[in-house]
Specification:
The chain is an all-alpha fold. It is built from 17 helices and no strands. The two termini are about 25 Å apart.
Length: about 300
């Protein structure tokens, strides 16, 4: 392929050549060059063949990384909508997200191409109080009060949004006019002394004191008054579940190291994928960095969208 401006032969006309030799400006010189000369691509046919072969070899090695076409991509999005799967950027796989950006430029345009309303699949941090209340009421109407239990595992984005907007999940449920199954409306007033008695009573009865079985109000009180997690509170009372690891074994450096290793291995870095195969990693990342996106930025650098691609 020859440059239409200077006639030099290249395997591909690059942004560096257009900027240095021909004085192109702006963030996308290749797009400007192709529009000026009515070109579909700025890469030679031989280079395109080599890229296609390399991509096919990659798919043979990793079958999950399918070759996405516009029709296949739109069909997959519609299937996910039918089956109730999340379509927020943090919930889809890396391969699907990368395909959407490659085919349509960005994720919003990809959803529009499939005829999907972006507002119905926004990430939790963009949810308003009104939308959260409407979503909680809809869940209660379709599945009853039991549908509101265990939301941290069922829909992490909705759960996190509720905690940010209302303080905790139960307050969000009460604001929506639904009674939380996990903590009744006439809940007790927790203090650290009451919390210690509650733990000792449970241990005497041989019952679980794991965080999943602890009332949310008790967890919130312990975190607020001690500034530490539930595991540290149990250790202060002389109890450490057998086989459990100390939370202090996790550090910022360890979280960054594991994130880099996961990215270099080509594994998905979406929050949904990590929740499925390494929930402790996401919990520690949020504990040390405040959010999953901030942890990715600290470990890998770059913006949240760029971090979806595995490191070379």
């Amino acid at each position: 392929m020859r440059c239409r401006l200077c006639g030099q032969a290249f395997r591909a006309v690059t942004p560096m050549h257009l900027r240095r030799i021909h004085g192109f400006r702006g963030p996308h010189p290749i797009r400007t060059y192709k529009r000026r000369f009515g070109l579909r691509v700025a890469v030679s046919a031989e280079t395109r063949r080599l890229v296609t072969r390399a991509r096919r070899r990659q798919v043979r090695r990793h079958p999950s990384q399918r070759l996405w076409t516009p029709s296949l991509f739109r069909a997959e999005l519609r299937r996910m909508v039918r089956e109730g799967e999340g379509l927020a950027e943090s919930q889809v796989s890396h391969a699907l997200y990368a395909a959407g950006r490659r085919l349509y430029g960005n994720w919003d345009a990809a959803l529009r191409a499939a005829g999907i309303d972006r507002q119905e699949h926004e990430v939790a941090r963009r949810w308003s109080r009104e939308r959260l209340i409407a979503a909680i009421r809809d869940l209660a109407r379709r599945g009853g009060r039991h549908a509101l239990a265990g939301m941290a595992q069922k829909d992490a984005s909705l759960y996190d949004a509720a905690r940010r907007r209302f303080g905790n999940w139960d307050k969000a449920v009460i604001a929506a006019g639904c009674q939380s199954q996990r903590r009744p409306a006439s809940r007790r007033r927790w203090t650290l002394d009451v919390a210690r008695r509650w733990v000792r009573q449970r241990l005497r009865e041989g019952r679980s004191v794991a965080s999943a079985d602890v009332p949310l109000g008790l967890l919130d009180r312990v975190r607020c008054d001690t500034g530490e997690g539930w595991g540290a509170f149990l250790e202060q009372l002389g109890h450490r579940p057998e086989g459990s690891a100390r939370r202090s074994a996790w550090t910022k450096a360890k979280v960054r190291r594991i994130l880099r290793a996961r990215c270099n291995a080509g594994l998905s870095m979406s929050a949904r994928a990590v929740d499925g195969d390494a929930p402790r990693l996401r919990a520690e990342a949020r504990r040390w960095f405040g959010s999953w996106r901030k942890a990715l930025s600290a470990a890998l650098g770059g913006s949240g969208s760029a971090l979806r691609r595995p490191a070379p």
